[in-house]
Amino acid sequence: MHQKDSSHTRTLHFFGFVFLSVLLLTADHKRAIPAARTALNIVTYPLKVLVDIPYSTTYTLTRFFTSHKKLSQENEELRRLVNIYSARDQKYRSIAAQNQRLRESLKTAKMFDESFLLANILEVDTDRFHHRVTINKGTQDLVFEGQIALFGNSIYGQVISTSPHSATVMQITDPKHSTPVRNARTNETALAVGTGKTNTVSLEHIENLEDVKTGDLYISSGLGRLFPPDFPVAVVQKKHYNPADSLTTVTAQTVTDFKRSRELLLIWQARNTTEKQ
Prior knowledge:
CATH architecture of the largest domain: Beta Barrel
CATH superfamily of the largest domain: Rod shape-determining protein MreC, domain 1
Number of strands: 12
Distance between the termini: 135 Å
Largest sheet: 6 strands, antiparallel, barrel
CATH class of the largest domain: Mainly Beta
Shape: rod-shaped
Number of helices: 3
Mean pLDDT: 77
Low-confidence stretches: 272-277
Strand order of the largest sheet: 1-2-5-4-3-12
Structural class: alpha+beta
Strand content: 25-35%
């Protein structure tokens, strides 16, 4: 008897809840109980938030790692582009500098009826007794022994040996080299003799040493018809008097900077243009 009452009570509760649910749904559909609906939303909001936490956390973490990976890829791509453009910029700068040097060389070459040849330095031999370089032009390019070489508009040296594909050029700073020069201010002649030191020559056979001043420019005199006249050679740095031998030494710095020269201009003067042809 007790079980029947209990079963009957549960059935009544069930239908009661069903009826209440239908009633609430109908009322909600007709917007009849906004206050109750609001209260219900307030009560169930924490539960909704709690249920949503796993999803929102997963979504946030996914977006974070996706964004981080995307940013890393973008940064890597930007670094790659920066390296590419840096290399290109350096290349363009190198080309621009080379064009500038070529323009300066061409200005010089006009003095020789366009008989010129631009050569690159392959090897440098600068010890105490030799200041020489190997260039990438040789007899197949009609380079000959004794040919002069310029750097920009200044004297560099002369060819002392040749082979089919290369040649050796002695710098004017080599101890065995001497260049006939004259003082651009006083017009007095001298010899610029190599000292074996980079960018340094000694001025010898000067008749009037008292008239030589620091800063005087010595240019090629053209004597001997080896070097063309009026090309810058060296600038006086100092005069040193040695009481022991009663000699005054005049030291000059070459206009050519042998530390940074990479290209030379080989020229054919009027008297040997036919040889080149």
